[in-house]
Amino acid sequence: MTPSVSEPRRTPGRSLVLYPDPVLRRRARPIEAFDGWLRDLVADMRELMRIHRGAGIAAPQAGEAVRVFLAVGDDSEEEPRVFVNPRLHDFAGEISLAAEGCLSLPDIEGQVARSPELSITAFDLEGRAFTLQSAEFAARVWQHEMDHLDGVLIVDRMRSIDRLSNRKAIKELEQAHAGG
Fold first, then answer.
1. Which residues have a catalytic role annotated?
2. Mean predicted confidence (pLDDT) in 115-144
3. pTM, 2 dp
């Protein structure tokens, strides 16, 4: 997942958005044009994901309320794939709890219930439709990133006990956002 030393590094034009920024709570709007703006957004998201060592990143985390996310697959060494206007379907298996963190909620982690198997249909950067299936790590990442596109955060999905144990860190993020 980490680029080789010879690959050029770029400074993203956007910064990682942290909780409780309001863009994280908006329902993202669909992408209508597969253009240079979208390619620039994805390039910034890819770099933010690399810098912050994420398994995925959604456009709201880069300050844009549009339906785009990047995610690694079940092989975390592969390049992140772009998902434009994604839809999840064919959920299967017994819902399971697992620890999740979030780039926009640093140092906060909690147990989140997710479906272990599902399919996703989306478009790539050129506007070509594709469908993938996963019964592994990618299924959890896709659900997490889709939550971002709907304005839902892990603090909304984690167990009450986890919200309580993270209450101090959440309060610190809220105070930092308020400027004090």
1. 145
2. 96
3. 0.91
